[in-house]
Amino acid sequence: MLLKAVFWDLDGTLIDSEPLWHDGEIEIAHANGGEWNEDLGWQCSGTPVPSVARHMIERGCKLSVEEIDKQLKDYVFNAEVTRLPWIPGVQDVLRSLKDAGIPSMLVTTSPRRMAENIMKQADGLLAGYVCGDDPFEHKPNPAPYLAAAAKLGIAPEDMAKCVVLEDSSVGLQAGAASGATLIAQTGWIRTDTSGLGQFASIDSYDGIDAAALDAFVRQRLGK
């Protein structure tokens, strides 16, 4: 296989967690004098929590950015510890990659405790992670993806032989800037993410395995 590694975003790519974030936003906003709804949540999808918090404050939430940040991350973390909402079929893709000897790495802006919870529940299917608490610029900067590659000993010039799977606009921009073969997962996001540098788009994991991801790389490189 030409494929060297696969780098996975978390929310909307590995797990269907966006609804958890939106539920938390609504609960926190309404409990503290604000107005918020699912549509507003989706408009902020993929952006850092402090940015979401500022939008919530603009709509009447009386908490500080720091208070919203803590309460929202606590809400989602506790929900994910109770039950991790894996996207259908994604664990089969991870198993196929592991069986083929291709490492999968988690690359998320979420805090370390969330990344560690994913690692624990992934049962060895993920080789490692880069998270929002690591000392790198956040997406849309490509630094997290390049750092994940470096952890595997993959040089920047070999990123085209790696696949990045992303769903949000900032994530797709980061993946494209990294030089990787970028695949957009469109099945669990409600915003338009077209034209952001993706090589291909998929809306489920039907028919996706190590061979299929290797084929995307070969097609991109003309090999």
Word description of this protein:
The longest helix is centred in the N-terminal third of the chain and has 18 residues, at 65-82. The protein has 2 domains: 5-16 and 86-221, Rossmann fold (3-Layer(aba) Sandwich); 17-82, DNA polymerase, domain 1 (Orthogonal Bundle). It is elongated, with a radius of gyration of 17 Å. Helix 8 links the parallel strand 4 and strand 5 (181-185). It has 223 residues and is α/β, with parallel strands linked by helices. The termini are close together. The protein has a 6-stranded parallel beta sheet with strand order 3-2-1-4-5-6, with helices on both faces. The chain has 9 helices and 6 strands. Helix content is 44%, strand content 11%.
Protein traits:
223 residues, alpha/beta, Rossmann fold, DNA polymerase, domain 1, 2 domains, six-stranded parallel sheet, 11% strand
